[in-house]
């Protein structure tokens, strides 16, 4: 419940602070005194968009703060999901800066408006005159029935199954489209795949073939150069080995004279050993060089095949061709396994349909069970509100398809007068009748569920006299189960409040300011008497006011 509200620098409000109690609270005031301003401030506290023009003094920031006792609301999971610190007394603060920027805090932790809006839905239900029209809205009608039927958990389960079901259906449509396209491309993809598979591609294959092709294509040049190199290394008169051996002999004779000469001798010996190994490798390579026209042609053919495949697939390497081969393999397998994949998917859809139907049946059964007692209670309440002949009819029709709220179509009908025909709710009731029906619905909801604080903004529109008295009694009873705040112009309702606040304007110098104060018994008598008889309060009006407060 809302325990305290502070509004600073907002519209006509300079600074107000009020403490609120459990039960039924009434707020009165002349038209234009600022009741709508207070509701606007509460709306900002619950996540509505801020209007910079609402700042009273542009040199200061606007601050709206509310304290809420949420110990009975079971909101720990919500706070955890939003990464907020849970406090049984939670403080929400909204700031509109002079720059036009807006900030929001929950227990001093900054939050965005979507989180604030989600939290606000658990805390306060502001029921404006416009909200009464929602009685004709199908979603609201489902919400009422499901709240009374305690279908919240079942509804969440159904929506989750429905989401998964829609996802599977979309996958089936996409798969059929993919398969149709794959079927068109299957033969071509299979041809390309076979072509790549026949090439038997391996990493490094292209480099090896290119190297071998160069060897086979240059046999004469290789023979000539290797022979010359071998002669230059090994020939007795001019060969490098013979020359180095003479150098080795020269250095051997002086190697003992110093460490430097000894080192030179060892290094020449190492070069001789290395050059001797090179000579052997050259000789071996020369023996292997031979013309092989058949291998040359085969190598060239293999290379041309690789080059052609790279050109066809716009690939720069064997590795890229192998990746393309793997992708083609997937496409071909997808086409070949299409029927199996679709069959598996259709089975998953059928299984999900079974789950959905089971949950939808539970929703239907719960709704069907509570509709008769709900109608009976609503008609009893309407009779007390001056609609003794009103009859309510709710049709719950099971459909074969899955809808957002189950497999049900829901229709609310009203026959407002004796002998009247049933018509759609929004077409059958006047504004005053809709107000009374909405109050009847809200009172039933309040008795059967843990609703948040509810604020009625002139729910009494279109009613007066004894009906207003009955309406006040219902609001008072609702206050036994929850915090109810009613903004009203009717003394019959204002007198039923456990506490009573008055909103009024006060002129000081050139400034008009909206203020609010809690009325005690003497002031309540005067306020109710003025609501009954105008500014010229008579003793009979005061007496009537006292009667209203004593009832």
UniProtKB/TrEMBL annotation:
Coiled coil spans: 151-236, 311-362
Keyword match NADP: no
Gene3D superfamilies registered for this protein in UniProt: P-loop containing nucleotide triphosphate hydrolases (3.40.50.300)
Entries under InterPro entries matching the protein: DNA_recomb/repair_RecN, P-loop_NTPase, RecF/RecN/SMC_N
Domain of life: Bacteria
Residue span, RecF/RecN/SMC N-terminal domain: 3-507
Keywords: ATP-binding, Coiled coil, DNA damage, DNA repair, Nucleotide-binding
Pfam family, one: SMC_N
NCBIfam families recorded: recN
Family affiliation: Belongs to the RecN family.
Task performed by this protein: May be involved in recombinational repair of damaged DNA.
Entry protein name: DNA repair protein RecN
Species, as recorded: Autumnicola lenta
The organism's taxonomic lineage, starting at the top: Bacteria, Pseudomonadati, Bacteroidota, Flavobacteriia, Flavobacteriales
Gene designation per UniProt: recN
């Amino acid at each position: 419940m809302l325990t305290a509200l502070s509004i600073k620098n907002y519209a006509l409000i300079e600074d107000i602070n009020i403490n609120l109690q459990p039960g039924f609270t009434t707020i009165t005031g002349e038209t234009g005194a600022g009741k709508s301003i207070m509701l606007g401030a509460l709306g900002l506290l619950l996540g509505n968009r801020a209007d910079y023009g609402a700042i009273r003094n542009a040199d200061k920031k606007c601050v709206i703060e509310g304290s809420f006792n949420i110990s009975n609301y079971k909101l720990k999971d919500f706070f955890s999901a939003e990464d907020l610190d849970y406090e049984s007394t939670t403080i929400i603060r909204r700031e509109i800066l002079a720059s036009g920027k807006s900030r929001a805090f929950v227990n001093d932790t900054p939050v965005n408006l979507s989180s604030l809006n989600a939290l606000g839905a658990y805390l306060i239900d502001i029921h404006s005159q416009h909200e009464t029209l929602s009685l004709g809205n199908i979603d609201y009608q489902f919400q009422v029935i499901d709240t009374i039927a305690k279908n919240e958990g079942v509804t969440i389960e159904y929506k989750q199954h429905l989401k998964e079901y829609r996802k599977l259906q979309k996958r089936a449509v996409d798969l059929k489209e993919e398969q149709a396209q794959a079927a068109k491309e299957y033969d071509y993809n299979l041809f390309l795949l076979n072509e790549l598979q026949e090439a038997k591609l391996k990493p490094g294959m292209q480099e090896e073939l290119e190297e071998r092709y160069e060897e086979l294509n240059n046999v004469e040049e290789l023979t000539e150069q290797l022979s010359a190199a071998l002669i230059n290394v090994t020939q007795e008169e001019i060969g490098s080995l013979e020359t180095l051996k003479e150098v080795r002999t020269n250095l051997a004779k002086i190697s003992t004279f110093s460490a430097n000469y000894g080192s030179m001798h060892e290094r020449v010996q190492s070069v001789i050993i290395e050059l001797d190994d090179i000579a052997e490798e050259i000789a071996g390579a020369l023996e292997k060089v031979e013309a092989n026209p058949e291998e040359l042609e085969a190598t060239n053919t293999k290379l041309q095949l690789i080059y052609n495949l790279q050109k066809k697939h716009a690939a720069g390497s064997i590795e890229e061709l192998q990746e393309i081969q793997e992708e083609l393999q997937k496409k071909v397998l997808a086409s070949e396994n299409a029927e199996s994949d679709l069959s598996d998917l259709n089975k998953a859809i059928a299984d999900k349909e079974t789950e959905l139907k089971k949950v939808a049946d539970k929703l239907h059964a719960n709704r069907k069970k509570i509709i008769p007692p709900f109608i009976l209670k609503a008609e009893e309440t309407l009779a007390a509100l001056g609609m003794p002949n009103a009859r309510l009819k709710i049709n719950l029709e099971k459909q074969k398809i899955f809808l957002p709220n189950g497999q049900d179509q829901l229709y609310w009908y009203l026959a407002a007068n004796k002998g009247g025909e049933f018509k759609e709710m929004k077409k059958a009731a006047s504004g005053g009748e809709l107000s009374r029906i909405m109050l009847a619905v809200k009172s039933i909801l309040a008795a059967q569920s843990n609703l948040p604080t509810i604020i009625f903004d002139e729910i009494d529109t279109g009613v007066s006299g004894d009906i207003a008295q009955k309406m006040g009694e219902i609001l008072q009873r609702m206050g036994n189960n929850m915090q109810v705040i009613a903004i009203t112009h009717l003394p019959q309702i204002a007198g039923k409040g456990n506490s009573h606040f008055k909103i009024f304007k006060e002129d000081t110098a050139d400034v008009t300011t909206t203020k609010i104060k809690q009325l005690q018994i003497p002031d309540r008598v005067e306020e109710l008497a003025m609501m009954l008889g105008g500014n010229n309060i008579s003793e009979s009006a005061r007496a009537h006011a006292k009667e209203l407060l004593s009832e």
